[in-house]
Amino acid sequence: MEGIANFSRVASQFGNDAEQMGRVFQAALKQMDSKESTDALLAELEKVGKQSGLTAEEIKKIGDTARESTDKVADAFAQIGVNSKAVMTGISSDARQSFTAFQTASAEASAAGQKDAKLMQAAFEAMMGKLKSKEEFAEFQHQLKASGDAALLTQEQLARLGDAATGGAEKAKAAYQGLNDTALKTGEAAKAAHDKGSQAAENHAQSVRKVATANKEAAAEADNAAKAAANASKSFSDYGYRLTQTAGFYKLNNEQLDLMNRQFSGIKLGMEATFRAAQMKEYTQQIYNANTAMQRLTNAAAQGAVTQDILNDAASAASRAADKLGNTELTKFRNAISDAQR
Question: Which residue has the higher pLDDT, 193 or 28?
């Protein structure tokens, strides 16, 4: 934990000054929010104390004195209704109870062989509705990582928790609202789920189920859109293939098809798809132009009528299409040009 690491770093600077180390330890002890963290801090005190040359008696005295002092302060503030540990750590007693309940539920599910991603994701949403301060969210984040439960959550949930750990409940609420807004855009079913979930916010579990349904429908719509885009992309490739054959004498070989597929991989939608179509047209037009120029050169060479203009056109067209022709065809073109220049 950061508090323990800070204690170790600062305390080691005071050498064998037991009084100074005691002050640093007491400050760090106020930040500990569980028996486990307190025990870890005591272990670090013993380690740093020994390294600094303190005796076992001095180390024990530092630990005992600090804990007694902290307990007295806590009791004094409790008399006026203030939880000093909650104030110092930013984690309320209600939040601590929720952490314990979550850990217990997770452990019970594991023991029963019923630990499921959907179950843990629903439990996560329930916890997010209970926490308030950024310290509470940060502690929940630490707990999930330590237990391995974080691996069962979605990337969106982890990102939302990360935001809350730096901004508290208001930032978490804004992130959750953003999730619902995204679901709204996917269709009327998602909109209905969001509206009903907002009107029944007190029933958090019900809201989560409705948003999950909306997201499932959104995924189906996205899948349909992806298939349509894939068909559109294939149409562009077919168009490019046909364009290279308009002169009736040339077809793309496997190497050229592979180069074109690599150049235009992936799916594009909307304006990007329109731009992709224009790029495909220009790409295949350059192949067509190169072959037209080479055919013209071949014909002229056969008739002994090669001119400098024909040579220049062939060289220029081959150069512009050099990365599209493939090594085999490009070598043929260059050899033909070299032969015609002799």
Answer: 28
Q: Is residue 24 within 8 Å of residue 14, measured between CB atoms? A: yes
pLDDT band, very low/low/confident/very high, at 249 (cuts 50, 70, 90):
very low
42/48 Cα distance (integer angstroms): 10
Q: Are 305 and 297 in contact (CB under 8 A)?
A: no
Q: How confident is the model at residue 81 (pLDDT cuts 50, 70, 90)?
A: low
Q: Residue 189 in contact with residue 178, Cβ under 8 Å?
A: no
Q: What is the pTM of this model?
A: 0.34
pLDDT reported for residue 157: 92
SS3 of the chain: the string is CHHHHHHHHHHHHHCCCHHHHHHHHHHHHCCCCCHHHHHHHHHHHHHHHHHHCCCHHHHHHHHHHHHHHHHHHHHHHHCCCCCHHHHHHCCCHHHHHHHHHHHHHHHHHHHCCCCCHHHHHHHHHHHHCCCCCHHHHHHHHHHHHHHCHHHHCCHHHHHHHHHHHHHCHHHHHHHHHHHHHHHHCCCHHHHHHHHHHHHCCCCHHHHHHHHHHHHHHHHHHHHHHHHHHHHHHHHHHHHHHHHCCCCCCCCCCHHHHHHHHHHCCCCCCHHHHHHHHHHHHHHHHHHHHHHHHHHHHHHHHHCCCCCHHHHHHHHHHHHHCHHHHCHHHHHHHHHHHHHHHC
